[in-house]
Amino acid sequence: MKKKIQIISMLCMMITHSLFSQENFKLMFYNLLNFPLETNVPNRIDYLEQTLNTYKPDIFMVCELNNVYGGNAILQVLQDRISEDYRSAVFTSNTSDDEIGNQNDLQNLIFYDNSKFILESQHIVQTLYRDFNHYKLKLNSVNQNSNPVYLNAIVCHLKASSGSNNENLRLQMVQDLTQYLSTFPSDSYVMLAGDFNVYSASEPAFLELIDPNNNIVFVDPVDRMGSWHTNVDYVDVFTQSTRTQSGLGGSTGGLDDRFDFILTSTNMLSNQDLYYVPNSYQAFGNNSNLNCFNNEILDTACAGTSFSLEVREALYYFSDHLPVVMELETNEALLSIPTYQTESFQIMGTNMVDTTLEVQIHNQSLSSNKLYIFNTLGQVVKSIPLGTSNRLSIDVSGLKNGIYYIRMSNTNVQPLKFIK
């Protein structure tokens, strides 16, 4: 009888946890300053590694990424230092008309923890200057089939520089995004992260983003609206520049601008499925010290209790921008993946492939088995014998575009999804 009571008690605790669980997600956006082509500071990846290991984001969004090699280097750092579950979206070059500045080497990308989010799709929103990149993520929750929760993460880099002409170019870019979002369900969870290059909340491009007449209305979750440029009252949200010294690449002048943002759709302030955690928004590395105004972040005037000198040094040497971070929370319970399943094999790099799927086998005792690729109907479309190598390059060029699952013949191993 006592044993039965203990079992019932344990079941009640498990049910209660499922009903009232809260999962927290850490987000970071970072302007990478022409990574990896900017080489005035050697070994910049080491400084980025320190920053990522300090904050440990679940979603990492970037702009000013030059090429796929830089993206792969960042993914390797995330997998080595934070979690093997990290994945990236497919790197795409700018497709927008770039005759204005001919800067086709500044790209956006997203990295994410695949145990918490599933990349459903990615789309490009073309503008007159640079692309917006839209990544649709699904929460890897227990109820994802009956109550799927989608986060639409959009990453951007608006036209830089002051003056009415540049303001108008930024506005035109944002208007293209507004048009794109007009087709979304109005209750969509949307997040816009990027280097906006705006100088105040009254600039036309920013007003367009927060226009209450839009289908998707954005809000500043930290609620620090105003005229930011060289205004010491907003020093706590300044993100550029980390430097006053020239020769390191990028801009100088010290902290006096709020260029970098993460905005959310208004419903993410009040719903229960996926919502902003109050007071979690920060300019990472900014100690909110008034004396830091127009100083570089290594200066003693920028000291404080939130970010140590060691943290600020890594930020200083990597980029002229500070990252922006914030947290989201959900009442949905995440789908737990047993350790034995994740240790068997994994897809290397992105799970969105064109011609070749790279697979790493972690358990050599499974070498006598096969890998099977299934379509969404459960039909086997390809079988691959496993030899002695623990790294496989699987030709999937003959498969039709769509969603597939790859699984070992051992049914105790969780299948992995990839998209062609």
Automatic annotation (TrEMBL):
Q: Sorted alphabetically, which keywords does the UniProt record give?
A: Endonuclease, Exonuclease, Hydrolase, Nuclease, Signal
NCBIfam families, per the entry:
Por_Secre_tail (TIGR04183)
What is the residue range of the signal peptide feature? 1-21
Lineage, highest ranks first: Bacteria, Pseudomonadati, Bacteroidota, Flavobacteriia, Flavobacteriales
* Annotated Pfam families: Por_Secre_tail
Query: Secretion system C-terminal sorting domain: which residues?
Result: 357-413
What one GO molecular function would you report for this record? exonuclease activity
Write the protein's name.
Endonuclease/exonuclease/phosphatase
Matching entries from InterPro entries are given as: Endo/exonu/phosph_ase_sf (IPR036691), Secre_tail (IPR026444)
